[in-house]
Amino acid sequence: MKKMSILVLISLSLFGCGEYSPSKHDVVNTLGTIKNLDLLEKFTEDVSNNKDSEVRVVNYTDEGDPVIHDLKYSDEKLSSKIDTRFDEFGDHGVIEDTCKSIEIIEKSDQTIYQLSGCEVYKEGLPITIIPSD
């Protein structure tokens, strides 16, 4: 019984009772309102310059749930890890992928930051989408 109590406490502390609080170093997209976009732009530049770098992007769903996307570029390898465990309507898992590049796609109504050349998401993997003003 004591072991079960400890496991429950650890689980609650890890998942914060379903809450996630982004750090001041995260790129946060709350339904088109972006904080710290400069960190994603720097990451994109670092990848272009073959410089090791990492960034966390937190995209909030329409329902207000965070989807956490960790990006890391190291030793010429671009890694992606998407955590949907806080998304009530998501698949509640972690998906990892390796991609070849990051693109910025400018459209009339939005800007899309997207990974391309991915092993799992062959069609491309959006990092975040920013609506135009």
From TrEMBL:
InterPro entries found in the cross-reference section:
DUF4362
State what protein this is by name. Answer: DUF4362 domain-containing protein
Origin organism is Sporosarcina gallistercoris
Which superkingdom heads the taxonomic lineage of this protein's source? Bacteria
